[in-house]
Amino acid sequence: MTIVPMPGRAGRPGLVRVADAVDQYLEAIQTATTRASYAETLARLVEVVDPSPAALLIALDCDHYAATMSRWDSAAAATWNRHLLALTSFTTWAQRQDLLDTNPARRLERRKPARRGDRSIPRTRLDTLFGDDQNSLRERVLWRMLYETAARAEELLSLNIEDLDTEFRRARITSKGGAVEYVHWATGTARLLPRLLQGHTTGPVFLGCHRNTAVTGREVAQLLVSVMRVLRRRRSRRGDLDAGLRSCP
């Protein structure tokens, strides 16, 4: 941001109206998005001080800044911090211009964003998802294998039956870097996988109905889309349930 001297400062540095100083400061901000964001905060500041005697910049104090920020008392921490940053930035600019000797923002503090905590899905909810017969067997095997192996979706979707070692509960995959590795699954996958294979010994595991033809990228994309649709539906239903529980006394 470019620092532009305020006109007419010589000998009377503080006799500048707040609105004029705000306009001069915003003009000096070169980034349009920042200028628009700060303009909202500083417009509130002008509302607080005008047309009182405190309209002069030199008369700004902590009470004016507190009254300005009171509009966002109930806002999220990120919103509060964004508006506070606008005030502190304006204050720093005014001090560099020798228009302010004090810091009216000194009593205001940044807020800490609320911690989201553990975002992992509870095991009981996963078991419900994996065991829900409303979802096809293919999807449930894929979800189980993704969960138990921690492999990438593309790696598992590209599996052929020939890559499976059901005796040792493992599969041979080609990792992102091209290296051949093994991923291992647990009891849940081991129970469902034979039902999906239906005795077939060749062909894709998840695509093409175990045909002996190459799997296309389009088929991989279609299965990924179907999986994401089911997950979004279940997430939406769970969100509605959680909202209802929160509304209960």
From TrEMBL:
Keywords annotated in UniProt: DNA recombination, DNA-binding
Gene3D superfamilies xrefs: 1.10.150.130, Intergrase catalytic core
One Pfam family hit: Phage_integrase
Keyword Signal attached: no
Positions of the Tyr recombinase domain: 116-249
Start and end residues of each Core-binding (CB) domain: 16-95
Keyword tRNA processing assigned: no
SUPFAM superfamilies: DNA breaking-rejoining enzymes (SSF56349)
TM region positions: none
Protein name: Tyrosine-type recombinase/integrase
Species of provenance: Nonomuraea roseola
